[in-house]
Amino acid sequence: MPPALLRSAVLAASRSARVERLVSSAPVSRDVVRRFVGGPDRTSAVAAARELIATGLTVSLDHLGEDCTDRDRARAVVTEYTELLRALAEAGLVERVEPLAARAEVSVKLSAIGQALPVDGEKLALDHARAICRAAADVGATVTLDMEDHTTTDSTLGILRELRVDFPDVGAVLQAYLRRTEGDCRDLATAGSRVRLCKGAYREPESVAYTKRLDVDLSYVRCLNILMSGAGYPMIATHDPRLIEIAAERAKFHGKSAGSEFEFQLLYGIRPDEQRRLAENQHTVRVYVPYGAQWYGYLMRRLAERPANLAFFARAVAGRG
Ligand code: FDA
Questions:
Q1: Measured by CB atoms within 10 angstroms of the end CB, which terminus of the chain is less buried, N or C?
Q2: What count of other Cβ atoms lies within 10 Å of the Cβ of residue 207?
C-alpha cells in the first residue's frame, strides 16, 4: 500500500472505537506500548521524567486521553494534572533551566478537559486550563497547550490568549501542515511567547492543510524562519534530521543562542541517541513523555508516521515482536 494511503488508514483507525477495542484487547506485547509511553500511571511517569532529567534532558509530561465528552472525566483530568505537578515538585524536578520554562512541565490537550462538550465546552476548558496553569505556577512549572485537529485551532488559540493574560509563559503549538500557520507564527512570535512548531499529526483535508510531505517540510522551514527571527522562544518539535539541522542554522543566523533562546523537542522513545547528541551540543532538549492507560489514539498517530513503527507493532500484536 502506498505510504500516504497507509498513513490515512491508520489515522482513520485511530478515531475508530471498534478498532480501538480490537487493538486494546489484542495480546500486544507490553514492550510496544512501553517504547512510546512513559508508564501507565503518575508514579511511573515521574520516574521516567527523573531518569531523563538525570541525563541532562528536560521533559513535558502529557496525561493521555482526548475527546472527553463527560464533565466528571474532564474534572478528573484536571485533578490528575494538579497531582502530577505536586509530585514533580516533591521529586525536585521543576527547577528552571531557561528563563521561560522548568526542567519538567506539562502538556495539556484541551479536548481532554472539556473543550468538546456541547454546552459551554470552551468555557469549561478555559476554566480547567486556568486551574492547571495555577497549579503549575504554584510549583514553578509551565504548561503547553497541545494542538489537535484543525476544527479546534481557533478555539485553542483563543483560550491561549486568555490564559496568557495571567500566565504569560503558557506554551502554544502550531502545526506546519496547516495553510494558516505562517500567519499564526507571525502573531505569536512576540517577546516571552513559547511556541512549539511541529508538522502536525491529524488527518486533515487538502482545503486547510498541505498533504504532500515536501509541502509540509517547506512550510515548516518558512515557519521556522518567522519564529527564529521573532522575539519569542521557539520550541522545535521534530525528529527530522534535515529540519533539526536547518533549525540550528536558522537560529545561528538570527542570533538566537543555543540552550537559552530556543529548544528542541522530541517524543519519548523516538531517536533517543539524537536527543542525547543535541543535549551534549549545549541545546535544551525537551522530551515529550505521554503516560496513562489511554494510549490508543497516541500510539496510532505514532504508527501512522512511520511504516517501520507499524511493522514493529504488527509483529508484536502477532506475538513475534
Ligand atoms: P516525520 O515523521 O516526517 O519524520 C521525518 C524523519 O525523521 C524521518 O524520515 C526519519 O529520518 C526521522 N524519524 C522519524 N521517526 C523516527 C524514528 N522512530 N526513528 C528514527 N528516525 C525517525 N502534533 C500535533 O498535531 N499536535 C501537537 O501538539 C504535537 N505535539 C508534539 C510534541 C513533540 C515534542 C513532538 C516531537 C511532536 C509533536 N506532534 C504534535 C507530532 C508532530 O506533529 C508529528 O506528527 C511528529 O513529530 C512526526 O513528525 P516529524 O517532524 O518527527 O517528522
A1: N
A2: 7
